[in-house]
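REVIEWER CHECKLIST
Item 1: Sequence provided? yes
Item 2: Single chain? yes
Item 3: Sequence as submitted:
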Amino acid sequence: MWQHFFSEKLVSYIGKPIHIYVAAYAIIFFLLSSLGLWLQLNGKITPEIDTFWFDNIFYNTIQGNGFFHVSPNHYSVSEIYRYPNFSHFHQHNQPILLFVLPIYYLFPSVYTLLCLQAILIGVGAIPLYFIGKETLDETSGKIIAISYLLYPTVMWNTILFHPITFAPFFIFSMVYFYMKDKIGLFILSLFFSLILKENVPLVLFPLGVYLLYDFYNGKYFSPYVSNRWKYFLLLLVLTPAYFILSFKIVIPYFTGGEYVFAGRYAHLGSSFSEILTNFVEKPSLFISELVSKEALSYFLQLLLPVSFVPLLSIATLSIGIPILLQNLLSSSFAQICFIAQYQFNLIPVIFLSVIVGFVKIKRKRNETFKKYMISYFHLTLAWCIVFSLIRFFILISPEPLF
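Item 4: Structure as written out by the authors:
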């Protein structure tokens, strides 16, 4: 009886085309993020710097006040934080800002950034839906796409603007075009994925390794790919090249010298080479970070909302190891918090792992597969409510979270 009831409810929940859910997400969370911004500007809740930072650098660029420079000459920074005049590129290599700039020029407002972000996060569900449809079936693809829209990080990061939040859309698109053997669109998606942030290669390079493995073993994403090597070479050559370009040329150019190693990892060493040395000579430094209660809490935040399904595909989930290490080894609490933008590099990995996990379930337990999908969907709704309550209490906290 209960199974029949939930089956009928499930059909009613997901009966509409996927773009309806995407549009609903974009509208609802643009309104919510705009409300959050208004509350910040009026001193009702603790202000978050990042959205104002990006608004400031776009404003200064169109006003001729420096190439994506942040400076206290605009309401979004001068009334909340004060920074010396320097370029955003001295910290991050994000050429995607050049593509956002014309939109901001036409509609120069911080609300423009929030609207653009809500749309691009939302449309990430569309290529994910197509991937799920190809590997599973239409209903399963839609359920997984909706669970992406309800994923706590996807829902509740929208109060902050960060270009890295576009990563799911471009990386899902890249995987889908790989599956359909569309090399031109694959390259375009790869290009936009790379220019989101300097650390995106930490996802794309292992993704290339995984797709090579997938071609010879699992064939979850590779059954129709003909000339596979052109895809693998693009990922395995271009991604490390962009990583080196970012840290050896672009960022040092804007800092006026060598790249200054981030202080968030100073407890592990003063440079990348010293950290590697300490990893060999003092492994306890790293083990203590990776087996801490904070690390356990972080894994629960990532996996609870998707009912631990990614654990059914450790090979797929391993794509995220470099980003997981980057976040877990950092001294900044923000990097292991579900409302922070740092998780957006991992979201494509998590949901590709969800798809492969369900493919394995379907292959082994086809007769009960529908039950698993029904349970997954309703658990997604439940965890959405739980994490939304947590986000609400974080939002009204008198002190900033990080």
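Item 5: Key structural point noted by reviewer: The two ends are 47 Å apart (CA to CA).
Item 6: Recommendation: ____
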